[in-house]
Design goal:
alpha+beta; 33% helix; two-stranded antiparallel ribbon; single chain
Length: 102
């Protein structure tokens, strides 16, 4: 991440305490840091809902990355629905027989 300054502007804070950053920032979430010397830093951030944080933790993060890599390199193929149902039924029967033998 580069901290190189690409533009600099002077903004005036209005009577309501607001400044306009321009339409390119409309709807963005920003982190505001106030420093002791009076300077402020605004940084665009992305927030992750708590219910989705698990996706960023291992082993889920790696599993998702592997799945995305597989999807990127594997061409789509037509699914034979009859074969899929047959495989599911066989698997279900196998699970039932194992459960009954306990």
């Amino acid at each position: 991440m580069s901290s190189e300054i690409i533009s600099s502007e002077i903004k005036t804070v209005g009577k309501s305490g607001q400044i306009s950053l321009g339409k390119s920032y409309a709807g963005k979430t920003l982190s505001l840091q106030r420093r002791a010397d009076g300077s402020i830093t605004l940084t665009a951030v992305a927030l992750v809902p708590e219910s989705q944080l698990w996706m960023l933790e291992e082993p889920h993060r790696s599993a998702i990355a592997r799945g995305l890599a597989w999807a990127a390199e594997t061409p789509p193929a037509e699914t034979d629905l009859d074969e899929l149902v047959e495989r599911a039924m066989k698997k279900r029967k196998g699970e039932r027989s194992r459960a009954g033998s306990r």
